[in-house]
Structures are given as C-alpha cells and as structure tokens.
Input
Amino acid sequence: TLICALALLAAACSSAEAEPATTTAAPTTTSTTTTTAQPTTTTQAPPVSVNLALDIPTDIAGPLNELYSWLADKRNDPPAMPTELVTHLEPVSRTDPGQVGAVTAAELESGDAVAVARVDNDIVLMVNDGPGWRIVGAAMDGSEPWLGPNPRMVLILGSDARVGENQQRFRADSVHILTVVPKSEAGAIVGFPRDSWVQGPDGGTKLTNLMAGRGPEIMLETITELTQLDIEGYFVTGFLGFTNLIKALGGLYIDLPTTMRSGNNWANYPAGPQELTPQRALRLARIRKGLPRGDFDRSFNQGLIMQAAMDMVQLTGIDMLPEWVQILDENTWTDLSTEDLLTLGATAFFFPSDQLVNTVLPGTVGTAGAASVVYLDPEAEDVYRDLEDGLLTVDADE
Output
C-alpha cells in the first residue's frame, strides 16, 4: 500500500552514509501511481420483440405482436387486455410462437368488430369497440382457456311474438338459465315452466306474462331476485330470429330420446337422430299438448335444441366464431357487451354439448284464481344453490 511504501523509503534514507557538508544531495522525488478499480459492466440484451408474419391490417396485428413479445419476454409490457387474463397468461411462455394459422373478423350492427386469431395451436379473441383492437380472451396450447370470469351465466328468453309484433315486449314462452364453466368444460341449461307463479313488481303473476309490455329487463330482475344467482345478462329472440338462426346452421340435426307427439295437426317427431327444417325445429320448440308432461317436456325439448345447435356450431370450427357472433347479433337482443358476447360465444367450441346438464325446475300444476299455474317445488331452491358455481350436480328432473 501507499503507507507501506513510504515507510520503506524512510528506512532506506536513515541507514545511508552521510555526505560531506560541501556536497548538496540531489533532491529525491517519489512518484506514486493510484489505480482506481473500474466496475464490471454487463450489457443486458434488449427485450425480445416478436413480429408475426401477418397479412392483415396493422391495427389487428399490433396487439398480437405485443402479446407474443410479452409471452416471449416478460420485460415487455402486456397488451391491453383484462387484468384476470394477464394473470392467467403470466406462466405462459412462447419463445417461438410459430405460424399464424388464420385471422377472421366480422363487424356487428353497432359498428363494433370481433376477431379470432389462430397462432400455431393458440387461439386469441379480440374486439374493437371504439378505441381500437384489444385482446379479451385466449385459449393457449397447454393451458386452460380464459373466456371471461367463471362461471358464465345468462338468461335465454324465447318470445311468443309473431312477425310484426314487438318481440322484446311480448310473452316469454321459453325461459332458461344457461351456465358455462370453461375451465371445467361443463355447464347447465335450467328451464323454467312458462306458467311458473312468481312475484313480479305488481305482485304474483305467471312468469310468461312478465315480459309483456315491460321488456326483458324485468325478466332478468325477477329471476335474479328469485334465484339469487349472479346472472350477467340476457338474450331474447322470437319466431323469426329463431328460424333465421336455424337457417344459418343449414337445418338442425338432433337426436330425440323419445317420440314427440305434436298434439295438433303438425307431424309428430320420431325418436332418434333426424334433420329438421327451420320450421320443423320451431314447431318442436313450441309443441306441448301432445307431450306427457306438457310445458315441462316442452322446456326440456328447448334445451335439447340448444344442445344440438351448439354441436353444429362447434363443427364449423372456431374460425367461424366472428361470423356466428354477427349472426347472433342480427337475430337476438342482448344487454351483453361486445366483449362478453364474443367470449361467451367462444365457449361453444371447447367442450361437447352433453356436458351441459339439461333439466327443468320441478313444480306442481295448480290454480291462481281462474288461471292454471305452476308452483315451483321447494327442491327448486336446491337447484339454485347448486348452480352458484355454474355446475349442476343435482338433476331437477330426478
């Protein structure tokens, strides 16, 4: 060290022989060099940037590139998407995203747009509802799909309105709660007998009459109050909308468990697999007089139709999802956002329809004044509570 060097120099001078007085010793100059250690610097590579080969508009490609850049290197910021989806995708890594299989999009009547992108075996859902395209759902290869918060739970209403009548303010002759739990690949269709006696805003009334003159919002409010379930919204369609949906499917392929008698001048329905025209499918959804349990069996048949339609939609492939959302938007009324409409529609592609438990609430036929009504049995409460997680372990028909 510098201190040791100075000490050694002093010792050497004191032991040297003295020079004569007439001689002047040359001055001694000591030079010291101080070396400052430089910190070791490591140059960190910049965050990985992924640029997918996309032959699509840059406003759609941008969020996809941001997503895969983030999946390749979490130092990047994730694209605009729900916080729950960010958390869900945090463990996912994509150092090589592979090839873009397809990107399909469709515009809705509102001006919003929806899109599905397939990148290798990944599926990414996107919407543009004003500020630009953003990611709203994903099913990444090797992980569970995220298609909105679990469970999904909506009210499906079939209006008795004919063409030319107000389909949103007429009687609701088909009333079902549809639930889907994508991570469990299961769900339920729970039907309400249309003549169920419920407490509406004006007192006791048939469930079917609630929507007449008031609209679907009162149906959602009443059934939410009755069941205490977290139902996120509703869909309404009428005769025309129903037949248009079946036309879009090219008819309805359905496997009926038993022979269905129409009870009027319509042709009966044999047991087993068969193809129905849109008109025949509508009649199946309406018949009740020839069925052993009347409206209970009709509600069950309506659930069978939903399951059959789901299987047919699934066969078209998820690239068709934007077009199906567009068709649904044109033939139904809903209070769901575009984001919820897309993610809910996507659930149809991830498990077979027989994983939806199709059942009808139990009840007893009676009267209220001069009206024939259905009083829901106490066991209906067990169904509501069982359905809180979106799954049904108790069959209301048993």
Observations:
- The chain has a mean pLDDT of 87.
- The first helix runs from residue 2 to 14.
- The first strand starts at residue 100 and ends at 107.
- The CA atoms of residues 176 and 191 lie 4 Å apart.
